[in-house]
Amino acid sequence: MEVKRGGSGRGEGRVRFAAFGSLSTVVVEGKGKGEKQREQGGDMVGAFGEESEKRRGLLEVDAEGTSARPVWIEVADKVRREYGFGGGAQPAKFLQVKVLKDTRPPVQKAVDSFLSRFFPLGYPNSVAEGYLVYSQYRAIQHFASAVLHVLSTQSLLFAAGLRPTPAQTTIVSWVLKDGMQHVGKFMCSRMGARMDSEPKRWRIFADFMYDVGAGLEVISPLCPHQFLPVAGMANLAKGMALVSARATRLPVYSSFAKEGNLSDLYAKGEAISTLSNVLGLGVGIHLASNFASTIQGKLIWAPILSAIHLYSVQQEMRAAPINTLNSQRTAMLVADFVKTGNVSSPAELRYRERLILPVGLEKDAGNVRVGAPLQSGVAKPSVMAELKEKFKGEPFLLHFGEQATDMVLHQKATGEDAVRGWLLATHVSRLCKGRKFQDADVYGKVLEKAYDETERSLPNFVSGLREHGWHSHLFLEGSGVRAVW
């Protein structure tokens, strides 16, 4: 499409626009002294080949400069079509369509085809930071898991007195997965709220339980007389792993979806998993036929595969920028804000989260502990009455102890309410400067001053959370302990 600007003579020029799907180009031509300037947005030549360069002549006007030919190129399902009206001095009455030849190098075609099948549309701009690392370790994780699955299933058959061919081991799990596996699913399903709060930790737990189940299957030939108990416990562990893995999949994918492309992310993630599983099954069958055909070989290869599997899922989860508020992430956010005045993004906190070891109290965030039962800090009716009076109208209660500050949230408290209570507790702790919390200190001038500082800093903190994509309207403490007073 062409637009004239300027008058005749030296300053006359034309601006040409062409749309190429997600790419675009702007060409600016100046006739003065035969000069020609060109500005491009996107790598049009690399993506569309020399044919696009040749077709640019259709954008020119006729000799008198009175008839323009609007032309655009659309890309749909890997086919590029050129559209234009009329030709030369002919009136623009009919739309002309021409399919352009794909002149890209074979390597670029293969790369583009791979990206379109295994990465979301618009990658990398359509996903959050860390998605490539997450996908790489996800592929390694599923590959190692598939190989281990073949070896463990073959061991089960040996323990049962069968001598299958390696290829038969890939379908036996459809029979063995019933029974105790359903019990494992039921046991783990009641932990759904904790999985929302700590999806990374529970995803690692899922793969650990899967490896426990696979390990029991691998050693089952060593105790054939105990085949049913060992196989049952293995399926119990795998049932727990299945529920945990499925329940934590959505929060992880949601953290990468920048443009509402959750379904696309899920579909491409499953494509990566399927390809890795197929390759892993092939390698597993080869190992089961050669290097790991004996129980001694399996006892060597199973720990190696399990280590690769668990390391990969750990790195995979570290790369995921989870953007929901829980106790661990809120404590780090508050500590960073109090020290620097800035709010950290999910990508900045992801490698600082504890995924395996227990999470301790954050001293710089007031040593706040969320989720403790109300009766743990309220020993007398007078204490409860005093708390309700001091925090009247608040959706939280703060009980200041010597080691920690217990925050009890009201049933209707939002994420911003939890953040406000956390900031208040942090300011109280900072103003007390390490002294033991005494009633005169906490409920007197210190609390009043802490309230003033909280009211001043809260708007900047909340706006920073929203700016960086945190879901500030929710607080997922995991334990589900709420109170009504």
Automatic annotation (TrEMBL):
InterPro entries: RUS_fam, UVB_sens_C, UVB_sens_RUS_dom. PANTHER family: PROTEIN ROOT UVB SENSITIVE 2, CHLOROPLASTIC, RUS1 FAMILY PROTEIN C16ORF58. Residues 108-340 form the Protein root UVB sensitive/RUS domain. The lineage of its organism: Eukaryota, Viridiplantae, Streptophyta, Embryophyta, Bryophyta. This is Protein root UVB sensitive 2, chloroplastic. Residues 343-473 form the Root UVB sensitive protein C-terminal domain. It comes from the Eukaryota. GO terms for cellular component: chloroplast envelope. It comes from Ceratodon purpureus (Fire moss). Belongs to the RUS1 family. One of its GO terms (biological process) is response to UV-B.
